[in-house]
Design brief:
Layout (H helix, E strand, L loop, with lengths): L1 E5 L2 E8 L3 E6 L10 H7 L3 E6 L16 H14 L5 E6 L1 H12 L4 E7 L8 H16 L1 H10 L4 H6 L1 H11 L4 H12 L6 H5 L4 E6 L7 H5 L8 E5 L5 H4 L1 H14 L1
Parallel strand pairs: 3-4, 3-5, 5-6, 6-7, 7-8
Antiparallel strand pairs: 1-2, 2-4
Length: 260
């Protein structure tokens, strides 16, 4: 584990391998350990950086609202320290929101973008209400909130098929402090719509969706890449393709890195 200080906050990251720089960004309630299998495989021919986003994993919390822009600045700080001029960003769910904020703030640093079970769209009014409900729920019963939140990310078939892996995701999620969960929910709730980036940027872009994703409606999210050059990959399962479709996702990422 390597660390740096950003606004007096300890940021934890890893840097493995040599070659094309690829930054893997985890989602809400996850941390950089979600990428362990991917790091060991992809780092054979590439330089793979994983970062614990604000208040997740070994990275400390920062403030009452952890915005996507603040997280993007953390990513920029890590890349600056490592003297990486351009990178491919792969973001799972909330990590995708951070990758998009980074792409807007630091376009010159972008070599490619992968949105994994994520969206460029801002929260709908209903989804914003759901974030507020989630904040109330986690304040009321932290552990139950996390256990239900994690289980609800997977398709029904996956819940039976990946019992051990899902328990590990829950174990990692329970390391996330209450204040950071609230701060991240607040940050996701106020994030900007960045669909324009999918239409106006020139670097390679890939959207990966799960057909049975309980969090992001598949048909709705396909619409964001209509009339764009963004490639779409569809998996048959839920919101955590990194577990539900691990072998296929490794192949897709390996191919994307080669062409970027």
């Amino acid at each position: 584990m390597e660390t740096l200080l950003y606004k007096n906050t300890q940021i934890s990251y890893s840097d493995t391998g040599k070659g094309t720089a690829v930054v893997l960004l985890h989602g809400f309630l996850e941390n950089k350990t979600m990428w362990d299998v991917y790091v060991s495989e992809l780092s054979r021919k590439n330089r793979i950086i994983t970062i614990d986003l604000l208040g997740h994993g070994e990275t400390e919390s920062l403030g009452y609202i952890q915005t996507m822009e603040e997280n993007a600045d953390v990513v920029h700080e890590v890349l600056s320290k490592l003297r990486i001029r351009k990178a491919i960003l792969v973001g799972h769910s909330m990590g995708g929101y951070v990758a998009l904020a980074f792409a807007e703030l630091y376009p010159e640093k972008m070599k490619g973008l992968v949105l994994l079970n994520s969206t460029s769209k801002e929260d709908s009014p209903e989804r914003k209400k759901n974030r507020d409900r989630a904040i109330k729920a986690v304040k009321k019963d932290y552990e139950t909130f996390i256990r239900l939140s994690i289980a609800n990310l997977f398709s029904e078939e996956s819940r039976e098929k990946h019992i051990v892996e899902i328990e590990e995701v829950k174990t990692q999620a329970l390391k996330t402090p209450l204040q950071s969960i609230i701060a991240s929910l607040e940050g996701m709730k106020i994030r900007k719509d960045r669909e324009v980036l999918l239409h106006t940027t020139n670097y390679p872009k890939l959207l990966i969706l799960g057909e049975k994703d309980p969090v992001l409606n598949y048909e709705e999210n396909k619409k964001q890449i209509e009339d764009t050059a963004v490639e779409l990959v569809t998996f048959p399962d839920g919101h955590v393709s990194s577990i539900e479709n691990q072998t296929e996702l490794l192949d897709v990422l390996t191919s994307f890195i080669k062409i970027s």
